[in-house]
Each structure stands twice: as C-alpha cells, then as structure tokens.
Amino acid sequence: MKVLVSAYACEPGKGSEPEVGWQWVRQIARFHKTWVITRTNNRDNIEKYLKEYQTDNLRFIYVDIPKWAAFWKKGRRGVHLYYYLWQILALKTALKLRKEIDFDIAHHITFVNMYMTPGLGFGNIPFIWGPVGANPYIPSAFIPFLGISGQKDNVFRYGVRILAKTDMLLADVVSRAKRIIAINNEVKQRFPKVIQKKISNISQNAITPDFIRPTFRKKQNDYLRVLSVGQLVSIKGFPLVLHAFAKHLAYHPLSRLTIVGDGQQRAELESLTKKLNISHAVNFAGQIPRSRVLEIMAESDVFLFPSFEGAGMVVIEAMAKGLPVVCSDFGGPGEYVTHECGIKVPLTSPDEFIEGLAEGLNKLASDSVLYERLSAGALERVRSHYVWDNIGERLNAIYEEVLRER
Questions:
Q1: Which of 48, 58, 223, 330 has the most CB atoms within 10 Å of its CB?
Q2: CA–CA separation, 49 and 87 (whole Å)
Q3: Which domains does the chain carry?
C-alpha cells in the first residue's frame, strides 16, 4: 500500500515520544511504501540514519513554522498552540501530495492525544488515528502531592478536557476515522460505545529484541540501588518517590536513589529531600544522554515509578534490562507491569500508597528469591508483549482490514 503518515515527533535514538514515532514509521515501512510528514528539527538524525541504513520504503517530508512566526514558543510554553499550527501545515502538505500520489491510508501517530485534533484526518484519505493516549484522572486525594506547579497543570489539563468536548472538528475526525488505535483499555472506554467498535488496543511503546538483557539479575546485597527516570513534572509523582524511599531508607540505610531527568519541579524536590533528611542518599542526575541513562539502568537494582501517566516507555525499557518494577497499579505502568515482573501498589490513600511502595522496596532488598523471580519475569513480559515487530504485525493487520473495506 501507499501510506501517508504525520508524525510531529519522530527521531531515532531520542527515546520517549520521538522514539515512538520513529519505531512506528519503521514498522509501517516494513510492509508498505511510506511517506512521513514530520518536523524540520527531526531532520538531522533521520538523514544520518538513512545514510547508514538503506530504507527503500521510507520518504520524509519536513515542515515547520518559521522561527520568526514562533517567537512565543519556549520549551513547553506554547507547545499546544504550536502543535495545532503544525497540524495545519501537515494537512496542507498532505493535500498537495495527494494530487500526485493515490494514497491508500493516512495515519497520524504522534503526538496523539484524544483531546487534540489531527489535521491529517481532513485529507480525504482513509484515516487511521493512533496510538491515541490520555493520562488518567488523578484521584483527588493525591492532588496535594503534585506540588504547587503540578496543581496548576492539573487544573489546566481538566480545562482542556472540558473544552475538547465542544470541539466539533475533533468530533468530525473521530467519526471519519476508519480505525482508532488506543494505547490501553482505559482510553478506549472514554470514547462513546458506538465509536469503541472501531477501536483496537495496541501498546504505544515497545523495544527491539537486541535491547533485552539475556539473563535475569541476581541479588547479592541487602540494600538497593533504586532508579527513577522522567521529566520532573507533577504527573510523574516524584514527591511520592521521595516519601517512599525515605521510609525504605529507615530499614535499609545503605540503599541509594538516583533520579534521572529535569523539569520545573526540581527545586521543590530537592527541598523535599532536605526536609525528609535523605539528601545524602539521593542523587539528582539531571538531563543526561540516553546512552548514560541505559548505563545507569544496568548499574541499578530496582525501578521505582509511581507515575500517574497513561503510558511510560521507560518502564518497558527498565523491564527489558531485568529491573523489577515498583509502581502504581494505575495508568500505563499498571498495565505494563504484572505481579510476575513487579510490585504494583493500588491508589487507596496517599499514606497507604507510600507505605506500599516502601514495603515493595523492602521486600526486594531482603528477599533474593523474589527479586530474581521478578527480574526473570520482567524479561519474559517484554519478550512476549513489547517487541516492535509484534506491534508492526498487529498494525499491518488493521491496515489490511481497512483496505478490504475500501
């Protein structure tokens, strides 16, 4: 088939959303001729990759808003407006390409949020939307743990969701789409029942087989090298990480915590470590190259991730390195992790949740049999559910269904 893709984020070797975009277009190109509309700032790494590896089925078209017209965008400030404007450029580019190429399918893959309208849906090509994601609603009892900046973000997020219900363009795209791909069942259930009939659940994230550690980890010490990775923003739940680690440290004083990432909450979190009297045992590594992140994973014992998000690529990466995961039984992490590869703690009350996270760490520090069983389970979970080629084959089956219907 001839497939037109719009991928706002699409870049090899970057991790997170850019890596998701890159891997999805590679899977599409395994089976079909693929044209990808993406941002200009992704070009250097993409072109470098294409020079090293022959990829006949992939063509890239780079579009972006001129810098002089986007002076107001700085970091995450203005990113939503910028994204909407880029969607208009992507649609304009798609309409131009359609005059020359008879596309069988149009597919929008990143950033895919169920509250933001994809421009490609109006290109008069059989349209597939997804992997569509959205962060779950955070239980009200946990809102104070988001911090001041996080509570502001949460109010904004709720506002966006309310406004999205009045967005007729978004409703039009949802009705036009031949198929919608949801990242998990929680997202699928938010759509009207009549729409759910054309929704398939496929994980947004996966890894390549060579990324998987060949054997499980062995536990030899009664302390832990705990790792937590992510932007230091409210939805990641880092205050909960620190509270839980402080309780664990009281029983295992030689344990150490490394937090990789940076963001608007860093000062708040550093202040909290002092308040909890655990500064000596916590290392804020900041934003570091992906290669170094993977090295730290290899040096760590446990991955701690009480995030409220709907996805969480880094959880799968940690499991692929054989790290047992201690996380919330909620959102993306709660779906990725089973009791065979980690310890999930339900969001009951904040006190019980923090106690549960700490108890999970304590068990892994003191029980080598449990630790090694969960390490082996993490590797098996990734091999059986989160390898990119499996995602590609499921996606190709959806494409074939759409083509038959056409």
A1: 330
A2: 25
A3: 2-133+167-203+387-405 (3.40.50.2000), 209-385 (3.40.50.2000)
pTM metric for this prediction:
0.84
Single-letter amino acid code for the residue at 40: T
Tokens 């992510």 belong to residue: 230
d(CA 132, CA 405): 22
- Model confidence at 76: pLDDT above 70: no
Query: Tell me, what's the pLDDT at 132?
Result: 92
- Residue 3 CA to residue 285 CA, distance in Å, equals 41
Residue reference for tokens 């089925």: 57
Q: Where are the beta strands (DSSP E) in 290-388?
A: 302-305, 325-328, 342-345
Q: 179-221: per-residue pLDDT in tens?
A: 999 998 889 988 999 999 999 999 988 989 999 999 999 988 8
Q: In 3-state terms, the chain is what percent helix, strand and coil (to 5)?
A: 50, 15, 30
| Phi, psi for 392 (deg, rounded to 5) | -60, -40
Write down the pLDDT at residue 279: 96
Encoded amino acid at 307, one letter: S
